[in-house]
């Protein structure tokens, strides 16, 4: 028998939401954060405890003559999620419980796979390694890739070395190997989601991931913007304003390395451009072109999206730091209002995986919330398993 959720169901779901966001916490803290009565919170806690969604997590310290309080927590058996950063050079996996607490993470060089199925098995094996000590079922996987993604399944415009993964084959191959929902997203979206999760004050912003390829993300009213076609976010095809080069050539490690070598710089890797001494003239030429490209990219989003802030992440971030003062000076001469330009510390492989985990947690927690609303007990004596989600 099913029926619409009652106020009691909603109270129970509200208590669970707070536990998911703040555990471990005491009952008094639950009462304060939910605004519900002591009796309502106690009843909801006992029902959630019976469902296996709440456990006692220890006692707090006694101060004065007060009684010690029991902390309530989310048990590990509720499950875990996995966020993946599947990069052209580095792959990172982060596994957390449904409270967002890390179980384990790892970052390894990306293997060169010639078949999509082999890559999927490799990724699933990495998840299993990172989740070795996790409890409960795997609830959600989100894999962030250097390319644009539509509908959580199809990859467009991936890095040249990852062209094999274009389309929806990677999604299908992973989904066939795991008993959990799987979604793909762009590395730029994952990076911006991580920033949004850590700073609730951000409203409108744009982000450039300047790494193996140039990737772009934006948000409006604190929500990621997603287009209807693969063209959305393909800002790299625009002219950079520096010669005949497009933005992707100057704002990606692959393209910038090629351009630097054309200018006579003998670089083994792009990091040598700022970590090793280089001939002053050729380096100045490269930096001038790079600066112009940054100015163009920020100008485009400033006049079309009106963001308050523009973020840069990825392997080229140290070079962005070097040219930002000049970028600001040029923008101030051409724009009536210049957005704040920020570079974000970025741990290759892990920071993007963390953003993917935030996406996992949102989806898993929403499903758990809905499962609690839809699984009201029918009778006090009836045996019933915990809500499935």
From TrEMBL:
Alphabetical list of Pfam families matching this protein: MarR_2, ROK
InterPro entries xrefs: ATPase_NBD (IPR043129), HTH_MarR-typ (IPR000835), ROK (IPR000600), WH-like_DNA-bd_sf (IPR036388), WH_DNA-bd_sf (IPR036390)
Keywords: Kinase, Transferase
Gene3D superfamilies documented for this protein: 3.30.420.40, Winged helix-like DNA-binding domain superfamily/Winged helix DNA-binding domain
Keyword Lyase: no
Signal sequence coordinates: none
PANTHER family membership: BIFUNCTIONAL UDP-N-ACETYLGLUCOSAMINE 2-EPIMERASE_N-ACETYLMANNOSAMINE KINASE (PTHR18964:SF149), ROK (REPRESSOR, ORF, KINASE) FAMILY (PTHR18964)
Family from the record: Belongs to the ROK (NagC/XylR) family.
Name of the protein in question: NBD/HSP70 family sugar kinase/biotin operon repressor
Lineage, uppermost ranks: Bacteria, Bacillati, Actinomycetota, Actinomycetes, Kitasatosporales
């Amino acid at each position: 028998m099913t029926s619409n959720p009652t106020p009691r169901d909603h109270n129970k779901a509200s208590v669970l939401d707070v536990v998911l966001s703040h555990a471990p916490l005491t009952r008094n803290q639950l009462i304060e954060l939910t605004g519900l009565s002591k009796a309502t919170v106690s009843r909801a806690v006992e029902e959630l405890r019976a469902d296996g969604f709440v456990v006692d997590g220890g006692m707090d310290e006694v101060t004065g003559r007060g009684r010690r309080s029991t902390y309530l927590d989310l048990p590990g058996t509720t499950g875990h999620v996995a966020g993946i950063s599947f990069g052209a050079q580095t792959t990172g996996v982060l596994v957390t419980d449904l409270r967002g607490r890390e179980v384990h993470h790892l970052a390894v060089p990306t293997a060169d796979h010639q078949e999509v199925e082999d890559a999927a098995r490799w990724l699933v094996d990495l998840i299993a390694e990172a989740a070795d000590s996790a409890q409960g079922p795997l609830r959600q996987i989100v894999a962030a890739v250097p390319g644009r993604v539509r509908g959580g399944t199809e990859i467009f415009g991936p890095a040249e070395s990852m062209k094999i993964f274009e389309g929806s084959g990677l999604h299908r191959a992973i989904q066939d190997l795991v008993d959990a929902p799987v979604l793909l997203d762009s590395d730029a979206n994952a990076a911006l989601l991580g920033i949004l999760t850590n700073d609730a004050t951000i409203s409108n912003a744009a982000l450039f991931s300047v790494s193996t390829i140039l990737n772009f993300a934006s948000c409006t009213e604190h929500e990621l913007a997603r287009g209807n076609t693969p063209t959305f976010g393909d800002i790299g095809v625009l002219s950079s304003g520096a010669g005949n080069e497009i933005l992707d050539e100057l704002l990606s490690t692959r393209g910038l390395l090629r351009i630097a070598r054309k200018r006579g710089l003998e670089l083994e890797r792009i990091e040598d451009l700022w970590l090793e001494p280089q001939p002053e003239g050729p380096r100045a030429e490269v930096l001038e072109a790079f600066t112009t490209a940054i100015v163009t990219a920020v100008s485009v989003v400033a006049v079309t999206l009106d963001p308050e802030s523009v973020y840069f992440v990825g392997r080229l971030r140290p070079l962005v730091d070097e040219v930002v003062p000049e970028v600001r000076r040029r923008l101030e001469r051409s724009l009536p209002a210049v957005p704040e330009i920020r570079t974000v510390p970025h741990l290759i492989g892990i920071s993007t995986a963390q953003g993917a985990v935030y996406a996992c947690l949102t989806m898993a927690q929403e499903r758990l919330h809905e499962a609690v609303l839809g699984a009201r007990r029918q009778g006090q004596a009836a045996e019933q398993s915990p809500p499935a989600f």
